[in-house]
Amino acid sequence: MTLQTDASFNSGQPVTHLKVAGTPAIVTENLTRRYGSLTALDKLSLTLESGDVFGYIGPNGAGKSTTMKILAGLLEPTEGKAFVLGREVSRHGDFVRRNIGYMPDTFGVYEDLKVFEYLEFFASAYGLPRRQRRKIVNDVLDLTDLSHKRDALVDSLSRGMQQRLGLARVLVHDPPVLLLDEPASGLDPRARIEIRELLKELQRLGKTILVSSHILSELGEFCNKLGIIERGRLIITGTIDELMARARLHPTICVRVVGDSTPAANLLRQDPRIDRVECANGELVVTLRDPNLHHHFIIEKLVQAGNIQLHSVTPQQLKLEDVFLRLTRGMVQ
């Protein structure tokens, strides 16, 4: 599906979607926002290239929404700068609004409107010519799989369909940059899957997407970069592969023994090649110091002890949750 991009805004000027080769889609430089003594965002420096899908992870109150509001031009930073497609947000508000689609974590809907009326209203607000609005609305309804609900009242839609309608709204002017604040929040498992598939389609269309969540597993399937924010500070960022590689710098081996695991744990903790030994779910989780060291020595050590019966020794398969726990150890409070 191709959305129209040559429509006009209220000013009568064509929509300008600037894509300069080598210009990052989003840049923040020491971005800070304070509310009195509370620092909601603390010196955030971040770069998203065109086409990046950046998963912004953190608990509620970490600073995710504050970041998006500043990038959308809805909130002034206390310090620092934010840029969208090379233009400073605070100085080029009209340009930024034309080139971003911002979906907040909660958004108002006009409950007495039908779905197509709701989208046509926003198409009109963006100044899209009347002769193009119907086609654009039909296109975004098709993209978000809401065509069969075009005549339904907004108030009659399920939570999941309202979220899809929110995405359709931010797509009516075909912005190259999307800011999506917890788009799957409060949805049932089926609706979460549907939103995830829609975000994958937007990725295939070449959109640059900054999407926030507090659930890691939601983002790992389609984001090429992740950032973890805690108390306003970006503590970890990188591509999925980079984060996995950093986590593997200290390989983890899962050891199961027959009977009491305490003697095995005590024995392994004495070995200088081992960083730490933890007990979890009936097994020993052994973290090695050297990423190039093979775990065979663990088997030899436990067998030679004579009084320990091994059940299994296997390298741990890393999931994003494991990566998060390893890389933020000692950072998150």
The gist of it:
The N terminus is likely disordered. With 333 residues, the chain is α/β, with parallel strands linked by helices.
CATH class of the largest domain: Alpha Beta
Helix content estimate: 25-40%
How large a portion of the residues is in β-strands, by DSSP E?
25-35%
Strand numbers in spatial order across the main sheet: 6-7-8-3-9-10
The CATH topology of the largest domain is: Rossmann fold
Structure characterization notes:
It is elongated and about 85 Å long. Strands 6-7-8-3-9-10 form a six-stranded mixed beta sheet, with helices on both faces. Strands 2-1-4-5 form a four-stranded antiparallel beta sheet, covered by helices on one side. Helix content is 32%, strand content 26%. The protein has eleven helices and 14 strands. It has helices at 64-71, 93-99, 115-125, 130-143, 159-171, 189-204, 216-219, 240-247, 262-269, 296-305, 320-327, and strands at residues 26-35, 38-48, 53-57, 79-84, 87-88, 100-103, 177-181, 208-213, 225-230, 233-239, 252-257, 274-280, 283-288, 310-315. The protein is α/β, with parallel strands linked by helices and 333 residues long. The protein has two domains: 26-244, Rossmann fold (3-Layer(aba) Sandwich), CATH 3.40.50.300; 249-317, 2-Layer Sandwich (Alpha-Beta Plaits), CATH 3.30.70.100.
